[in-house]
Amino acid sequence: MTEVLVTGSHYIFKNASITATVGGLGIVSGLILDALYSVRSESVSDRCVFTALTVPLLIYPMSSHSGPKVLIPVFSEFVSAQ
């Protein structure tokens, strides 16, 4: 099974697109669930809790993907300067 994926002509693009699609579906389904929970909540404090839980879930994927791309060059330049 892995030989087929590795020996294909565009295996990196196929694997990256599958991973991105599944990750995007997970984020969208989480936002839909949060919206449903917030609509069904009865008090303002319930809505505040769901909002407080949603904001980090939106920030983490952006920072986890771009963080290494920014931090690795910065730290490698810092280490090479010393």
Tell me about this structure.
The protein is mostly helical and 82 residues long. The protein is 90% helix and 0% strand. The chain contains three helices and no strands. The protein has helices at residues 2-7, 11-40, 44-81. Helix 2 (11-40) runs antiparallel to helix 3 (44-81). The relative contact order is 0.06.
Low-pLDDT sequence parts: none
The total number of structural domains is 1
- Largest sheet composition: none
Shape: flat
The portion of residues forming beta strands comes to under 5%
Terminus-to-terminus distance: 47 Å
Mean pLDDT across the residues is: 76
Rg is 20 Å
Helix/strand order: HHH
Percent of residues in helices: over 70%
Topology:
Blueprint: H1 2-7, H2 11-40, H3 44-81
Helix pairs in contact: 2-3
Outline of the structure:
The protein has 82 residues and is mainly alpha-helical. It has three helices and no strands. The protein has helices at residues 2-7, 11-40, 44-81.
What brief labels describe this structure?
single chain, 82 residues, mainly alpha, flat
